[in-house]
Design goal:
Strand content: 15-25%
Order of helices and strands: EHEHEEEEEEHHEEHH
Number of domains: 1
Radius of gyration: 17 Å
Shape: globular
Structural class: alpha/beta
Distance between the termini: 15 Å
Strand order of the largest sheet: 2-1-3-8-5-9
Number of strands: 10
CATH architecture: Alpha-Beta Complex
Largest sheet: 6 strands, mixed
Length: about 230
């Protein structure tokens, strides 16, 4: 499934060594240990929300943008993985079409499962982009960091607050709608590994030091029991 991508980048916060180890195990399960295309990007950790709802969403957006900018500078297609990505069994035999410009290798929710191309998609843990897509995507994401950005009312919902930018998965939805000429494909390659979030609000058991250790141990056990 990964043969057509020239770069594979995993976004990983420096302190989340647990997630880095899990991603290394994911690649090992696919026989990709030591693949020269794989690199870990040290995610941006923002302390202020900026134009976003939360600092975590701000940092995630900038981390994706940095990875995409690196790929565009190298004129290379790229698969962007968040470090809570877990490959599904189907990943062993499914492969995107060579004509695909935007790949959703997985998502958390869709507002319309019967019309994914028009739906609002939540989740950005496994995204692939061609060079043709990057040429338009990188400037688009950079524009969203500007307060003066104007939005097309045919693309953006009328109840959208222009003072707040969408998280990265929402930005990808907007980009797809702005550029229908780019070929989008949805493949069930990956889902989320259960792990304490650095973007959303933490659950009570992830905020409690002693309980957090037990919760993480339980997650790892469950992952091993349900792995590919």
């Amino acid at each position: 499934m990964l043969d057509q991508f020239e770069l594979i980048r995993v976004i990983n916060l420096a302190h989340r060594t647990d997630r880095r180890r899990e991603m290394e195990r994911e690649f090992a399960r696919l026989g990709m240990s030591g693949d020269a295309r794989i690199g870990f990007y040290t995610a941006t950790k923002e302390t202020r929300p900026g134009l976003f709802h939360r600092p975590g969403a701000h940092g995630c957006f900038r981390s994706h943008l940095a990875v995409l900018s690196e790929a565009w500078a190298a004129r290379s297609s790229v698969l962007v993985l968040e470090d809570d990505c877990r490959f599904r069994p189907e990943a062993r035999w499914l492969a995107p079409s060579p004509e695909t410009d935007i790949l959703y290798g997985g998502y958390a929710q869709a507002s319309d499962a019967d019309d994914l191309l028009s739906a609002d998609i939540q989740g950005s843990h496994c995204m692939g982009f061609s060079v043709a897509a990057l040429e338009k995507l990188v400037p688009f994401l950079n524009s969203l960091l500007q307060r003066s950005t104007k939005f097309d009312s045919r693309i953006v919902r009328s109840d959208f607050d222009p003072a707040i930018r969408p998280p990265i998965d929402g930005a990808y939805v907007w980009f797809r709608r702005y550029h229908p000429e780019l070929v989008t494909e949805f493949l069930p390659l990956a889902d989320y590994r259960d792990s304490a979030s650095d973007v959303a609000d933490l659950k009570w058991f992830d905020r409690t030091p002693g309980v957090r250790v037990l919760a993480n141990s339980a997650r790892r056990l469950r992952e091993r029991l349900t792995s590919v």
